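Before we proceed, please read the two lines closing this message. Let me know whether the structure tokens fit the sequence:

…
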Amino acid sequence: MAQPIAKNAVIILINLSNDDEVIRYLAEDDALLESMLRKITDIKDPTANEVGMLLANLAKSNTLKRALTLKRSIPASISSSAVAMDQLMDCFVKGAEGKVNKAADFDYLAYFFADISKHEEGRKYFTERQDYDGVVPITKLTVFTEHDSHVRRKGVASTIKNVAFEIPSHPSLFAEDEVNLLPYVLLPLAGSEEFSEEESAAMPPDLQLLPPDKARDADKDILVTHLETLLLLTTTREGREVMREKKVYPIVRETHLHVEDDEVREACDRLVQMLLRDEEGEGAAAVSGERVEEVEDEDEKIVEIL
């Protein structure tokens, strides 16, 4: 098929996939899924980006979580794993900014990951070390929280937030020798403000001595997402204590002060209430009984090409 025709055909499918019935029909098609995976993992395919957009749209269907365990032929040029999800992660990480396919940056796969992480199986995937490379997948995404691509930052932020619903994983998310999530969530919230020597010294190293031109993320929705992630991380007393020790409050305080947006400030207020709450009399039993309820993300929207 000629390249323009192939690309136009994918674009038509992208625009059609804003309908729930169409999404269900396409997402359940195993042959279509294999065709999409083949194109995305082919480092010479000129439609890889568009197919990634289509895959992100179809991930609104729960049936797409089968990519977590689906095995297929190994695309040796981009991955060493036979699992589809691993292959997509490798495309996203290794192929950023057109590094492996000049026609693709794979940014929209971040939206696919965000939807997959809404499922318990997806959250477990992102927080468990994978056999094929010995890496915890979420650590491959955290480095992109300050990436130039808005799409990549937005999808990664939502994926991280969804992963934070996995409360048993919170200790490893906090651990500096494991996921070390905190600095990657805090950096987009930080501006060029100066902190007291005492506050700065206790912050994660990446938050100390930020350059004078450091700017917080300009997207208010992304800021809210990161603040909601931090709120989820306060679910346990241990988490709250870590965040107090790492001086999360001063960063949130400055975000509240410098960002003139009601939703951002409301998210800051909710987080501050948890960080400054009185822990006296709270026992381990009370902490273990805490639960969080998942909320509907508003930022994983259907992609349309006009």
